[in-house]
Amino acid sequence: MINYGDPEASIIKAFRNRGYKATPQRIAISRYILSNHEHPTAQKAHLEVKKTHPTVSLATVYSTIRILKDMGLVMELNLSQGETRYDPNTEAHAHLLCIRCGCLIDWSDPIMGELISKVSAEANFTVIGSSLDLKGICDGCGQKEGSPPPRAAAND
Prior knowledge:
Elements: H1 7-17, H2 24-35, H3 42-50, H4 58-70, E1 75-78, E2 84-87, E3 94-98, E4 104-107, H5 110-123, E5 132-136, H6 139-145
Parallel strand pairs: 3-5
Antiparallel strand pairs: 1-2, 3-4
Helix pairs in contact: 2-3, 2-4, 3-4
């Protein structure tokens, strides 16, 4: 678990505990991904980290993200637009995805954890991950257009 009071020390410790070198590039990539609640893509992380570490490669970004996933510090989100984004919030929650601007918002409610517990108990099933993606129009896009689009079927 990352100590957000001293994230860099926590990142270094997490890497070393798993037998990985805590390079400046890995630390910068981890800091960016773990502090970004906009669910960045690997390409976005690469562009941002390159500002301070110009020699960092996209391969290093992907390998660092893989390590963060293996440590349980980020979730991989495979969205319908064909892009993969990363979420440092690994607690049970839903993603609200605007189909117009592409913003992705976390939505949390205790009912999510309760639902997972109920499914686990009633189905004798161990849940190791979950994803609930709700597509729609964010408030900003809805106000720009003046009215929301027609409601889609629940299984879209």
